[in-house]
Amino acid sequence: MRSTFIHIRGSNRQEVADALGGFDSHGVYIDFYEDHLTEYEPEDVDALKERLGVFPPDVTVMADLSGKIIGYDESLRLARFLLTRFTGVIQDDGDGIWTLDELVRDIPSVDGYFMENSRRHAGLKIPAGEKDAQIKS
Questions:
Q1: Across 4-8, 27-31, 122-126, 131-135, which has the greatest mean pLDDT?
Q2: Which domains does the chain have, with CATH numbers?
Q3: One-character DSSP codes across 81-112
Q4: Per-residue pLDDT averaged across 13-25, rounded?
Q5: What is the rounded distance in angstroms from the CA atom of residue 112 to the CA atom of residue 94?
Q6: Is 115 helix (H, G, I), strand (E, B) or coil?
Q7: pTM
Q8: Residue 1: in which H helix or E strand, if any?
Q9: Which range, 1-10, 45-54, 57-66, 118-127, has the best average confidence (pLDDT)?
């Protein structure tokens, strides 16, 4: 199972839970994640703080993706759902971090494209991105 994380600032768990009540989570197992302080390495903390502006995030939603699906479309759908309602970023299982705008425009981070390994494995096209278009994660 692969996971993506949506890190949110300026909100609380109840507001996010209420919003998630309107999300069709087919193929995605959604839960809240709170182990930042014990599971994040110092460089991960720095990268997330740089992109989100705070650490730890006020709320993190973890989306576990079934091995039966690619997960790219589902993760993108969840990110659009939450990040149009809340301020935040999404982090994939390769540790890249994107804003919603960067994700939708499919801009690579220094770690590559969003869910690049899963996309390649499924035979999905990966853009030939420009090195100068890369964002810092």
A1: 4-8
A2: 2-133 (3.30.70)
A3: HHHTTSEEEEE-TT--EE-HHHHHHT--BTTB
A4: 91
A5: 8
A6: coil
A7: 0.81
A8: none
A9: 45-54
CA distance 6 to 80: 10
Higher pLDDT, 127 or 51: 51
What are the angstrom distances between the C-alpha of 110 and each of 36, 79, 129, 130? 21, 20, 11, 12
Q: Which of 77, 122, 71, 124 is nearest to 93 (CA)?
A: 71
Cβ-contact 4, 65 below 8 angstroms: yes
- What average pLDDT score do residues 74-93 get? 89
The Cα–Cα gap between 9 and 85 comes to 11
* CA–CA dist 46, 18 (Å, integer): 30
Residues found in the chain: 137
pLDDT tens digits, residue range 84-121? Answer: 999 999 887 766 888 888 877 777 665 566 666 666 66
Distance of CA 110 to the CA centre of its chain: 15
Burial class (CB in 10 A: 0-12, 13-18, 19+), 18: exposed
